[in-house]
């Protein structure tokens, strides 16, 4: 397959007051932390949310690799549910010196465009800011950051900026174009 140019934008918040929460969506949408590390559930979320936008870096992870990652102190998965059905997730990962990365964030395609994403991102960023409250021994959060790229959904950058994230870096790199994996082969049209 040919190479494509992919732009990656890195954004940050440097104080909890930077967060500009979205209005909660209408209906029965709730966000809960997946407190039991579950490689099966985390892989389901990863493949279902990222399958149509070519998230592939974790598809080859073994069960043991997933478990090792999920059991690291401070790694958290927050899941949005719409009437009891998983709609999307945000994954937090602490780094050195009070930095927390929103490593993954997104919605399953059927739940996009319903105002769930802004609410979930707001909730996830707030949980990044208070991560040390739940994990004794972690440094208080001083910075929350994330990255998005030109392969992500068309509203991703706008959502991040509307939640108070500020751009601090832009990179353009060539990547091999890969087929859309879907949550299972053939789930989405090419």
General description of the model:
- The protein is α+β, with helices and mostly antiparallel strands and 190 residues long.
- It has one domain (3-176): 3-Layer(aba) Sandwich (Aminopeptidase), CATH 3.40.630.30.
- The protein has five helices and seven strands.
- It has helices at 39-50, 63-70, 116-129, 131-134, 156-162; strands spanning 3-13, 29-33, 76-82, 85-94, 99-107, 143-149, 166-176.
- Helix 1 (39-50) crosses helix 2.
Topology diagram in text:
Blueprint: E1 3-13, E2 29-33, H1 39-50, H2 63-70, E3 76-82, E4 85-94, E5 99-107, H3 116-129, H4 131-134, E6 143-149, H5 156-162, E7 166-176
Parallel strand pairs: 5-6
Antiparallel strand pairs: 1-6, 1-7, 2-3, 3-4, 4-5
Helix pairs in contact: 1-2
- The top-level CATH class is Alpha Beta
Q: What is the average per-residue confidence, as pLDDT, rounded to a whole number? A: 93
**How many strands, what sense, and barrel or not for the largest sheet?**
7 strands, mixed
Strand order of the largest sheet: 2-3-4-5-6-1-7
CATH architecture: 3-Layer(aba) Sandwich
Runs in which pLDDT lies below 50 for 5 or more consecutive residues are none
Q: Which secondary-structure class do the elements indicate?
A: alpha+beta
Anisotropy-based shape = globular
The total count of strands amounts to 7
Distance between the termini: 13 Å
* Strand portion: 25-35%
The ordered H/E elements are EEHHEEEHHEHE
Tell me the domain tally.
Answer: 1
Radius of gyration: 16 Å
CATH superfamily: Gcn5-related N-acetyltransferase (GNAT)
Please provide a brief summary of the model:
By secondary structure, this protein is α+β, with helices and mostly antiparallel strands.
């Amino acid at each position: 397959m040919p190479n494509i140019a992919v732009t990656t934008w890195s954004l940050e918040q440097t104080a909890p007051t930077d967060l500009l929460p979205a209005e909660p969506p209408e209906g029965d949408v709730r966000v809960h932390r997946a407190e039991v590390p579950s490689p099966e559930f985390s892989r389901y979320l990863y493949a279902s949310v990222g399958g149509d936008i070519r998230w592939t870096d974790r598809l080859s992870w073994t069960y043991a690799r997933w478990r090792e990652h999920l059991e690291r102190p401070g790694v958290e998965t927050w899941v949005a549910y719409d009437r009891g059905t998983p709609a999307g997730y945000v994954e937090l990962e602490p780094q050195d010196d009070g930095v927390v990365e929103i490593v993954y964030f997104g919605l399953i395609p059927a739940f996009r465009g319903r105002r769930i994403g802004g609410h979930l991102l707001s909730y996830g960023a707030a949980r990044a800011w208070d991560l040390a409250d739940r994990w004794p021994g972690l440094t208080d959060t001083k910075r929350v950051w994330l990255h998005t790229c030109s392969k992500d959904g068309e509203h991703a950058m706008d959502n991040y900026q509307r939640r108070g994230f500020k751009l601090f870096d832009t990179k353009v790199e060539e990547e091999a174009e890969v087929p859309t994996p879907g949550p299972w082969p053939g789930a989405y049209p090419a």
